[in-house]
Amino acid sequence: MKKDRIVTEPRVYLVGRQQIDENMLHAFLDDEGMRFETDTEVPAEILAEVAGRTCYMSFGKGRKTNAEYLDRIISSHHGSVLEHAVWNFLITGVSRSLTHELIRHRIGVSYSQLSQRYVDESQARYVVPPLYREQPELYERWLGAVESAHTAYEELVKATEPCVAEMHPELSPTDRRKLVRQSARSVLPNACETKIFISANARALRHFFEMRGSAHADAEIRELAIAMFRIMKEEAPNIFADLNVVLEEGTESIRVVHSKV
């Protein structure tokens, strides 16, 4: 199997973020006879602050900076305010094994994943588990198993195509291909690479980083959590201020000050 079909790390693309409709926000403030200024230019941080201040109609009162305001929100575990801040990601270079765990995070998160029923996996890539990257002998055994499964998939597709054509002449070419691939994919391993589109709010992301960025989490999903976290730490520093990547016994993990916000 060619080296370019072996994957050793995830790739994270932040493809979407919110915008503020300043005219409508100012119209609301004018109608309520209130003024509001903030020192952040990050739309998600502004929206979280506006949502929080709406609860108490505290615009123009109390804490002056967005960082101070969100620190109070987070330290007091007023996490619902963070659900108004949403981002969109495209993730590649992760295994089906990883996404089996990832999609357990359902509250505040939406997914759209590559379909093995429609996509031809004859050119599929495979993700090496972190442990095997460091062990040449185990890596070779893993590679052999992956190559065997991939060959079996290709052979099954080739053998199943005429069978399906004979059994179901009424089906369109697209439906015949789908039937062939959905059957043959059963032999593909969990290491098969997938691509997944994710939309998540800030509260859900904090929970994901805390759970899957832990030193006790699966190694591959921890790598993804850390990669996403590093992007979000720059994207919205005030929302993720109390989270940091630390090195524990040679392993990177995410440490959270205010747990379960």
Question: What labels describe this entry?
Answer:
261 residues; alpha+beta; Alpha-Beta Plaits; 2 domains; 45% helix; 18% strand
3D structure, described in words:
With 261 residues, the protein is of the alpha+beta class. The protein has two domains: 1-116 and 192-261, Alpha-Beta Plaits (2-Layer Sandwich), CATH 3.30.70; 117-187, no CATH class. Helices cover 45% and strands 18% of the residues. It is built from nine helices and eight strands. Helix 2 (43-56) crosses helix 3 (66-75) and helix 6 (136-167) packs antiparallel against helix 7. The radius of gyration is 23 Å and the shape is elongated.
**Largest sheet entry:** 4 strands, antiparallel
Low-confidence stretches: none
Shape: elongated
Strand order of the largest sheet: 2-3-6-4
Order of helices and strands: EEHHHEHEEHHHEHHEE
**Gyration radius, in Å:** 23 Å
Distance between the termini: 45 Å
Q: Given the helix and strand composition, which structural class is it?
A: alpha+beta
CATH class of the largest domain: Alpha Beta
Instruction: Kindly report the CATH topology of the largest domain.
Output: Alpha-Beta Plaits
